[in-house]
């Protein structure tokens, strides 16, 4: 059985390649049971979360990701998200690869957001605002910049020091990147607003939004978490990665549904609809669009399969 480290994943899973493979996989579809979601009590401020995410393609591969989310890890200078991925042969069940789950999750999550943006963001989007300073922030910046003509990136976080560290990670990028402490001003001036936080109260206000913007919400993976307020939902054409997952787990969708601000019919489409051409994305230049991602095991399986393919390909070239 192969072991693929995080460093190896970064070297073989290039953003644009993964985004295009995701597009193909959503079009084709795979078997994705609802993920198992368990709360794990801790002795710290916040409880932890255990996620089990299976998926398979008949006759090809079976995959399962085991993920933990411990919000208080930041106190110990550790990522909140940890995990492993196991890829199995779909015909025999034999284990094929043991893959770094944290890196796989970051890559596929960013790729899904960038995939959605190819349908929902204006094609001339040049200004990106990254809200959040965690491990996902650099991935989201790189993924969006790989598909859109981004020229200027602002990074906002509750800690200005952490925002500056995110910006400093980019050496000689094709875009200008800097930290900001003015969230409202940054939102008003952005073409694409990407959020990856553990916020429980909305950070993005609908009153700040401007015509033609695209909002990418990646945090808020439980019904109690929220990154954008009700006005954002009212003003935007709303899309999700998967209807089933978002309507059950994402606070930015669940809470407006429960309040009657949003109905299931108001959700314009998901990534299956967009990639298959069954629903239109952005309809006009000044429209505000919103994409809510909670993640799906389809994305993990797709990324794991591509990673193993690329590792094997590189080995044959040696």
List the helices and strands and how they pair.
Elements: E1 2-4, H1 6-12, H2 15-28, E2 36-40, E3 48-57, E4 61-69, E5 81-89, E6 95-100, H3 101-120, E7 127-131, H4 136-147, E8 152-156, H5 160-168, E9 176-179, H6 183-189, E10 192-195, E11 214-217, H7 230-235, E12 237-240, H8 243-249, H9 251-259, E13 267-270, H10 271-275, E14 289-292, H11 297-317
Parallel strand pairs: 1-6, 7-8, 7-10, 8-9, 10-11, 11-14, 12-13, 12-14
Antiparallel strand pairs: 2-3, 3-4, 4-5, 5-6
Helix pairs in contact: 1-3, 2-3, 2-11, 3-4, 3-11, 8-9
As for the number of domains, it is 2
> At the fourth CATH level, what is the homologous superfamily of the largest domain?
NAD(P)-binding Rossmann-like Domain
Q: What is the rounded distance between the termini? A: 20 Å
CATH classification, class level of the largest domain: Alpha Beta
CATH architecture of the largest domain: 3-Layer(aba) Sandwich
Helix content: 25-40%
Order of helices and strands: EHHEEEEEHEHEHEHEEHEHHEHEH
Question: How would you describe this structure to a colleague?
Answer:
The strands form two sheets. The chain has an eight-stranded parallel β-sheet with strand order 9-8-7-10-11-14-12-13, sandwiched between helices. Strands 1-6-5-4-3-2 form a six-stranded mixed β-sheet. It has eleven helices and 14 strands. The protein is of the alpha/beta class and 318 residues long. The chain is 37% helix and 24% strand. It is globular and about 55 Å long. It folds into two domains: 2-104 and 298-317, 2-Layer Sandwich (ornithine cyclodeaminase, domain 1), CATH 3.30.1780; 106-296, Rossmann fold. α1 (6-12) runs parallel beside α3 (101-120), α2 (15-28) packs across α3 (101-120) and α8 (243-249) packs across α9. β5 (81-89) and β6 form a beta hairpin.
């Amino acid at each position: 059985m192969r072991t693929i480290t995080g460093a190896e994943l970064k070297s073989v899973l290039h953003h644009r390649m993964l985004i295009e493979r995701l597009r193909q996989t959503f079009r084709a579809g795979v078997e994705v049971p609802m993920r198992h979601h368990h709360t794990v009590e801790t002795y710290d401020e916040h409880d932890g979360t255990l996620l089990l995410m299976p998926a398979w393609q008949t006759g090809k591969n079976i995959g399962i990701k085991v993920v933990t989310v411990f919000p208080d890890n930041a106190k110990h200078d550790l990522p909140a998200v940890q995990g492993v991925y196991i890829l199995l042969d779909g015909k025999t069940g034999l284990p094929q690869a043991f893959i770094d789950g944290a890196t796989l999750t970051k890559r596929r999550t960013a790729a899904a957001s960038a995939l959605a943006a190819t349908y929902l963001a204006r094609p001339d989007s040049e200004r990106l605002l990254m809200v959040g300073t965690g491990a996902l922030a650099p991935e989201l910046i790189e993924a969006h910049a790989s598909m859109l003509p981004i020229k200027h990136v602002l990074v906002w976080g509750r800690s200005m020091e952490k925002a500056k560290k995110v910006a400093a990670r980019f050496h000689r990028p094709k875009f200008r990147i800097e930290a900001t402490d003015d969230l409202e001003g940054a939102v008003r001036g952005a073409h694409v607003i990407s959020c990856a936080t553990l916020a429980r109260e909305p950070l993005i206000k609908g009153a700040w939004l401007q015509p033609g913007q695209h909002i990418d919400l990646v945090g808020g993976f439980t019904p109690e978490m929220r990154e954008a307020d009700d006005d954002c939902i009212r003003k935007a054409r709303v899309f999700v990665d998967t209807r089933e997952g978002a309507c059950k787990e994402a606070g930015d969708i669940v809470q407006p549904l429960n309040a009657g601000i949003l109905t299931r019919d108001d959700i314009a489409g998901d990534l299956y609809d967009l990639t298959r051409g069954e629903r239109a994305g952005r309809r006009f230049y000044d429209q505000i669009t919103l994409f809510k991602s909670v993640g799906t095991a389809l994305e993990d399986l797709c990324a794991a399969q591509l990673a193993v393919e690329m590792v094997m390909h590189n080995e044959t070239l040696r």
